[in-house]
């Protein structure tokens, strides 16, 4: 018994072909949309690859780009088939290709579904990459004279201003590293010598943050140096000051930014998958309705269309049997001629 | 003698109608595009409304939005006209509206040209309003507790960070203004008392700038306090340090930003004017060719299309005499019956001449 059988007369077939053709053009645009999203995601990752130690995985955007290209191509091809299906003479040349094409469509839909799930799951490796990258980035903040790292300061400053964040987890991360280059420290001054002597690594540590951590919404001009010393500033208590510097850490800020982007892309890929499934089903109906004409010579005769010739269980057992037969056939072929004769 | 006569066989008329239909739909899209440009420009101006004192410059985006909407309507009308132009029964009902349509198209194109001229003419005005707005913003920077001015600090800080500028003309503008609120000054300390006494108005002036003037591209962590004191910072010379703070003034930055915006919008507006003009010309040809064809015995014969029935000087003469007769008829109407008859004869003579 066929799965979801529908009766078709000429008018219904024409309408079906036109609808599926229209849907194919829509899904070509959806394929282009996938491609654009993949490109956009790739560019966004590249823009901040310095902050991720150039270690970020471009697997997902590359997959999106590839899937988008394949989707556009397959849907354009499918649209052409639908367009020709209204003309029996043209449709004849496509007939042998239809079954393999439909099977590859089903396979492609599975790939799309996998891509959508990856979009939601790739957040986790990204989190670790970001944490590592930001920690190293802050270490190289002062190295504006080292080739290869001289832009780290600008990148970090612009990132902190853009994303309204400070440090890795919070602003105190800046207290534990030296972010002022030795070129600008007067080693003959007592203050500098004290600070350097106060820790094992001989680093100039201070309770200050770069200017890019400052919050413009603060009612008071920004206090970025001597932050933990309440007596250094009039009417200042660093425990209660909330608006002075950004409270959020940059890892959390970047992760929520990229996470949001990936969630949106994942949702869109799901929608595109649904559209793809719909056009595959439509093409299958077009195919079956044109192959089961009651009177093959008369184009106006009635026909039937379905998704699967037998029920799902029967189709599944059929496929398993065919695969077993193929496997047995391969085994026996290696044996010799006589066993081949018995199998056939 | 007719102006720019072209012969139109039936096939060419059909092609003209189809081409014009496509062109008028493209013009509808360009009208929508114009509207979006106007909205974009207006939002950009509103975003910085806090530092702009007068709103005269808003006339440019307002014109663009109005003309955009109007051109969507007129071009949709043109597409309906040319859809019906091939059908002799449906075309006559559009005839009375066509003169009005041509007048409307002329008005729209001239409004767009006026908007483009205004773009450039108002530049001086724009600069003046930005200068005043910035001056006030810098003066009220510290008043974060005064209602109505409490957002000036955030506005100016964000402006300086976004546009990479500092102060009105340059960073020294901050040296002449007290930008730290009295709430955060310890009036018992000697330093504060010295500074306040050092000037006539009793303001706390210092040689420092807010953090938003800092340039992230500087290789050195930003120095924005005690800028004029040579000994305050190790190995720092204010005159030679180019990357420490932004060198550009915000007035120049803003004017450049808005002028750049208007220069980018300029070509778009020009292309819309060009498209509208071509729809105008094509519709006139279509109108005259179709009317000529309808007057013929065999509607499918060749007909002639032209821009003006007579040459330009003759058409101007015609219009002048029509207007004069209208004016003459007006005051004479309440008078005796003979005079209107006389004038009617004169008008007939004028129109036939």
Would you give an account of this structure?
The complex is a heterodimer of chains A (344) and B (353). With 344 residues, chain A is mostly helical. Chain A folds into two domains: 6-125 and 263-317, no CATH class; 126-252, no CATH class. Chain A contains nine helices and two strands. Chain A has a two-stranded antiparallel sheet with strand order 1-2. In chain A, α2 (59-85) packs antiparallel against α3 (88-121) and α8 packs antiparallel against α9 (337-343). The longest helix of chain A is centred in the C-terminal third of the chain and has 42 residues, at 250-291. The relative contact order of chain A is 0.15. Mean pLDDT of chain A is 88; it is low at 336-344. Chain B has 353 residues and is mainly α. Chain B has a domain at 6-137 and 257-317. Chain B contains nine helices and two strands. In chain B, strands 1-2 form a two-stranded antiparallel sheet. In chain B, α2 (59-84) runs parallel beside α7 and α8 packs antiparallel against α9. The longest helix of chain B has 46 residues, at 250-295. Chain B starts with 5 loop residues before the first strand and ends with a helix. At the A-B interface, α5 of A face α5 of B. Chain A: One of its GO terms (biological process) is visual perception. Chain A: InterPro entries: Peripherin/rom-1 (IPR000830), Peripherin/rom-1_CS (IPR018498), Peripherin_LEL (IPR042026), Tetraspanin/Peripherin (IPR018499), Tetraspanin_EC2_sf (IPR008952). Chain A: Belongs to the PRPH2/ROM1 family. Chain A: It is found in: Membrane. Chain A: It comes from Myripristis murdjan. Chain B: Belongs to the PRPH2/ROM1 family.
